[in-house]
Amino acid sequence: MAWFLLFLAGLFEIAWAIGLKYTDGFTKLWPSVFTVIGMAASFLFLALALRTIPIGTAYAVWTGIGAIGVAILGIVLFNEPRDFLRLAFIALIVIGIAGLKFVSPASS
Question: How far, in Å, CA of 60 to CA of 48, rounded?
Fold first, then answer.
């Protein structure tokens, strides 16, 4: 269950990070509201996952999920570069997350 909560935390991190782009410096009400809700949800699920998963592992996975998601959505939504090296380094983050999950002592 802890890994599922951590995954949710990562998804909400993606949501709030992308949401920042739409807030226009927190000058737009509804994008700002949804972004702040995403931040709160992300931190809540991260905190719940930390009951079982070691902080170093959880934080690395949480930020990794966010980095991967935001990088991919940046490519899709904002036409950011999609060159081979960029995609290769995103793949390395995926490998790192999988490795941390594999070696984690948490059984949840």
Answer: 15
